[in-house]
């Protein structure tokens, strides 16, 4: 028999624990933003270091720097930071679908987060075509997961909420795109209705966004553009960028998914038996591609994409093809690093390349549509692709064309890669851990 007012007393006893949990959550979101902002500055410094060495030692310097950097990164990944390889997003997706506490900790930990940051910086300093945004997701999720484990026995659903919020806050802080962080968490990380109704992710993104804004100001990742696309013949740009982006993005994803099961032939045997030698070979190939591309394929591709959006620089006509190849090689080498920024750079190059074919569309609009088309084709998350490009360029006038391009590119990409890239890679982690994918 319940005493009158018993539920009030129980609620009062629980109140301090609830407030403590909220404080953990708020502090975690702020901590994620602080770490990501510092990571962003360090990434810029790592790329600047590579460019300094390139300017000092000449165009052939990467033939020594890139193989050495990739070899060191792969060795450290395998010996000291196992679990830090790749972009980090598949690990977070896998962790969200796990309930075993120890298994989750094998994918998300302070050691892995530290390794992810350090080795991504090493990859950028070696000229690898990688981004920091995917690693930011794993770092953010690891920070929030560490806070959730301050409770001795955290409830599984609570731990998943912390992980999901940390990943979303990582994306939002990396790009300074809070809306994209929320959409990414819903569309890509969780695929669940629960995420749509939970305020935890929204709160983390808001707190992380406020912290980022206070530290770096109200900047847009790829600058600002006021270009628009009027109804009429110019809308052929949507079809052109959807077809090219979906085709290229789908093939790119299919290659990475297939490679996750093992490369065929002699290359597969080399990866299995001599991963360090394979990393050295990948470094040489990156140097060759960089030499062919006049140095435009090294690093995240942020500078090239921004210049293309603003129309302030020229890149070689073959830039998107060389950048795509450099990104594939960087990923296959086994080093930590993401594909977000390189994919956006490839898409920008595709849009620029297609611009002369659609004279009725502004070249800047073609660049934006190329970015969203290829990115949607790669990640098969069309709403995230449209929102992230819209926020990164502060251009709401292109919302409808961006969404249309993203949806069409997504449909085309599915013809070449039936499973979304991150979901398929997450399934590989779950299979390796002996857990079926939901």
State the order of secondary-structure elements, H for helix, E for strand: HHHHHHHHHHHHHHHHHHHH
The unreliable regions are: 8-14, 193-197
Whole-number mean pLDDT:
82
Residues in β-strands, percent:
under 5%
CATH topology of the largest domain: Clc chloride channel
Helical content class: over 70%
Q: What is the C-alpha radius of gyration, as a whole number of Å? A: 22 Å
Main β-sheet, in a few words? none
Question: Which features would summarize this protein structure in a list?
Answer:
438 residues; 2 domains; 20 helices; mainly alpha; globular; Clc chloride channel
Write up what this structure looks like.
- Mean pLDDT is 82; it is low at 8-14 and 193-197.
- This protein has two domains: 23-216, Clc chloride channel (Orthogonal Bundle), CATH 1.10.3080.10; 233-432, Clc chloride channel.
- Helix content is 73%, strand content 0%.
- The chain is mostly helical and 438 residues long.
- It contains 20 helices and no strands.
Can you give me a brief rundown of this structure?
Helix content is 73%, strand content 0%. The chain has 438 residues and is mainly α. The longest helix has 52 residues, at 6-57.
